[in-house]
TrEMBL record:
Organism for this UniProt entry: Popillia japonica
Domain Fumarate lyase N-terminal, chain residue ranges per copy: 9-303
Family: Belongs to the lyase 1 family. Argininosuccinate lyase subfamily.
Protein name: Argininosuccinate lyase C-terminal
Superkingdom of the organism of origin: Eukaryota
Ranges for domain Argininosuccinate lyase C-terminal: 366-433
Gene Ontology molecular function, alphabetical: argininosuccinate lyase activity
Record-linked InterPro entries: Arg_succ_lyase_C, Argininosuccinate_lyase, Fumarase/histidase_N, Fumarate_lyase_CS, Fumarate_lyase_fam, Fumarate_lyase_N, L-Aspartase-like
CDD domains per UniProt: Argininosuccinate_lyase (cd01359)
Ribosomal protein keyword on record: no
Pfam family, one: Lyase_1
NCBIfam families, sorted: argH
Length: 467
């Protein structure tokens, strides 16, 4: 017997085959089979409380749903031609298993509130997984920073050598971005953890179901307050996709720094063979493709965000079929982030830092700012000190020598405040250690950063599926 469509009663002609293929989303949203089944079991229990199902019928439905979940888990579920989506497929299979009693499950429920609920259930678990990956990345960076506190390298602005900093300070500059990304997940989790089930197609549920109890059963913190808003709301996905885009940008910027540092021109780091590829033509090549792929994928994450925003911008109220595309980009963004986070974790963990190359890249002209600070400590205004330090650099360049090779007499011809102890400026460790304020690159300041991040890593924010 041909399976009836959930909406087919008023139609006299069959759906066009091309439209049927376009309309079907089962190959995409089957990924939410478990969420759909869990939501249906909770809804079944509420229907029992409303006396719309007997205890016996409810038990039969829940047993059937358990069997369907097992079939999905064991890859035995057979998708049929009329299975438009995961909701249709599960309900069709349920009626095959237990007969017409299965058709009672949809009482008062629409796919409009059902799919929104399923997506929120799925995204909750996804957010937890992403948080754990981000914390793993931060942990790897923190561990390396502790181990390599003594490594010093040039810090750059405008890709020009600027001031000496610790490698750990550089690494933590990216770790703080990823901590911020993980912290933002808490807010996304909060706005996701709102239950729309009970909104029906758009007008609500006519059977006085206890939505608060239903929400508690499914682990939602609260419920939506307007049924029309609820079924058309995709803000939680938009927030997730924007977050994905921003996190992708942070990953891309880290990848770009490491790509530059791994070139022969810099040679500050070496990417492990396990996270590199070669050339099909040039045998000597070792390419940091792991990082280049991360940099490229960041662009597609932004594309997912802009795609949904363009879909949402002109939709009329409540549910529209345009929203069927939301799940594909949600899943894709998650998959890409999981992939790149796993790769960046492995890349950071296994890369080798060439400490000698880092230190050899330092030059005394990077201490020109320290010359200005030297004068400031002797009562010169910073603006004048900056000007005089610039004159020191210009004088050295004119003579084609290093600024540290200028004589005290030459320095005093620029500013009489220079004394014999100016020689103390030409020390990279001393330069670095002067930045003792919170957030600086001194040893104590970096250790303070590490302690904060380690405490953060021990905290728990987003509940896991089993918590």
């Amino acid at each position: 017997m041909e399976t009836q469509k959930l909406w087919g009663g008023r139609f006299t002609n069959p759906i066009n085959s091309a439209l049927e293929q376009l309309n079907a989303s089962i190959q995409i949203d089957k990924r939410m089979y478990s969420e759909d089944i869990n939501g249906s079991k909770a809804y079944c229990r509420i229907l029992i409380l409303c006396k719309l199902l007997s205890e016996e019928e409810g038990n039969l439905i829940c047993e059937g749903l358990d069997q369907i979940e097992t079939e999905w888990q064991e890859n035995r579920f057979v998708i049929k031609d009329n299975d438009e989506d995961i909701h249709t497929a599960n309900e069709r299979r349920l009626t095959e298993l237990i007969g017409d009693i299965g058709a009672k499950l949809h009482t008062g429920r629409s796919r409009n509130d059902q799919v929104n609920t399923d997506m929120r259930l799925w995204l909750r678990s996804a957010l937890s997984a992403l948080e754990q990956l981000l914390k793993e990345l931060v942990k790897i960076m923190v561990d390396r920073s502790y181990e390599e506190l003594g490594t010093i390298l040039p810090g750059y602005t405008h890709l020009q050598r600027a001031q000496p900093v610790r490698w750990s300070h550089f690494l933590l500059s990216h770790a703080w971005n990823f901590k911020s990304d993980a912290d933002k997940l808490r807010n996304i989790y909060k706005i996701t953890n709102v239950m729309p089930l009970g909104s029906g197609a758009l007008a609500g549920n006519p059977f006085c179901i206890d939505r608060i109890k239903l929400a508690q059963d499914l682990g939602f913190e609260t419920i939506t307050q307007n049924s029309m808003q609820a079924v058309g709301d995709r803000d939680f996905i938009a927030e997730f996709l924007f977050w994905s885009s921003l996190t992708g940008i942070h990953l891309s910027r880290l990848a770009e720094d490491l790509i530059i540092f791994s070139t022969k021109e810099f040679n500050f780091i070496e990417i492990s063979d396990s996270f590199s590829t070669g050339s099909s033509l040039m045998p000597q090549k070792k390419n940091a493709d792991s990082l280049e792929l991360i940099r490229g994928i960041a662009g597609s994450l932004f594309g997912h965000c802009s795609s949904l925003m363009m879909t949402l911008k002109a939709l009329p109220s409540t549910y529209n079929k345009d929203l069927q595309n939301d799940k594909e980009i949600m899943f894709s963004a998650f998959d890409k982030l999981v992939s790149v986070l796993n790769v960046i974790c492995g890349t950071i963990k296994t890369l080798k830092v060439n400490s000698a190359k880092c230190r050899n890249a330092l030059s005394f002209d990077m201490l020109a700012t320290d010359l200005a600070y030297y004068l400031v400590r002797r009562g010169v205004s910073f603006r004048n000190a900056h000007h005089d330090a610039g004159k020191v650099v210009a004088t050295a360049e004119k003579r084609n020598i290093c600024i540290s090779d200028l004589t005290l007499k030459e320095l005093q011809s620029i500013n009489e405040k220079f004394q014999v102890d100016v020689e103390d400026v030409w020390n990279y460790e001393t330069s670095i250690e002067q930045y003792q304020t919170i957030g600086g690159t001194s040893r104590n300041s970096v250790i303070a950063q590490l302690d904060i991040l380690r405490n953060w890593l021990s905290e728990h924010y987003i509940p896991t599926k089993n918590s």
